[in-house]
Amino acid sequence: MTNERVATDTDHTSDVSRADAEAAVRTLIRWAGDDPAREGLLDTPSRVVRSYEEFFSGYAQDPAEILSRTFSEVDGYDEMIVMTDIRFESHCEHHMVPIIGKAHVGYLPDRRVVGISKLARLVEIYAKRLQIQEKMTVQIADTLHSVLQPKGVAVVIEASHQCMTTRGVHKPGVGLVTSRMLGAFRKDASTRREFLAIVGMSAGNVLPNT
Ligand SMILES: Nc1nc2c(ncn2[C@@H]2O[C@H](COP(=O)(O)OP(=O)(O)OP(=O)(O)O)[C@@H](O)[C@H]2O)c(=O)[nH]1
Ligand SMILES: [Zn+2]
Questions:
Q1: Is 21 close to ligand 1, i.e. is its CB under 6 Å away?
Q2: 90-105 pLDDT, tens per residue?
Q3: The total number of structural domains that make up the chain
């Protein structure tokens, strides 16, 4: 897990051509024991590469830019803002198989708020990369904290990892819960409790049974 290549926000471009990516898929098909030239598999490499474009579209997006449009006229609103149950699909960086789960994102505004869709977009940008759940949790929380500069940020993610359900240890139904609390959510137990109570109320049927 050391020396991993960490994509940065400016690391958008790939030096791999689409033709090379499709050739790699043909190699994997051959390696799996099938014939990439048979009719049913002829278009598969281009479909796989198009799927990967979607699965990993988060590398081409800048989360700070998404959060840059804020509203300051909130008429004295100074309570926490919590978006619950943001469903996401990601891929684990160890096996490149799906991580499916929900993120709960809250913050305590300091005059400025963002459009609520941007919280879901923030989750989406980091989900659409190769991930481990802990890293994704930290990235979402830290980005929101540094760009919006609120009084605090709280992120809880619950997810099911298909690398544990469809292969390897084969344990369906297990979920991993991760969290990151910053500012008031870290310092003040009652603020944290309020957030967790809101998230808890929305819990249940959260983890897909995959
Ligand atoms: N901490 C953490 N681990 C993860 C996550 N996704 C997958 N993993 C784990 O990453 C580990 C990789 O372990 P390795 O022993 O290198 O790989 P492996 O031989 O395929 O391991 P098994 O999955 O146990 O078969 C596994 O234990 C996975 O369960 C994640 O989001 N966070
Ligand atoms: Zn995995």
A1: no
A2: 999 999 999 999 999 9
A3: 2
Which domain does 47 fall in, by range? 18-55
Q: Is 179 in the pocket of ligand 1 (CB under 6 A)?
A: no
Is the Cβ atom of 171 under 6 angstroms away from ligand 1? Answer: no
Q: Ligand 1 atom 9: the closest Cα is on which residue?
A: 94
Interface predicted TM-score (ipTM) of this complex, two decimals: 0.91
Same domain, 122 and 176: yes
Cα(170)–Cα(210) distance, integer angstroms:
10
Whether 91 and 115 have beta carbons less than 8 Å apart is answered as no
Ligand with the closest atom to the CA of 97: 2
Amino acid at 180: R
pLDDT tens, residue by residue, 20-62: 999 999 999 999 999 999 999 999 999 999 999 999 999 999 9
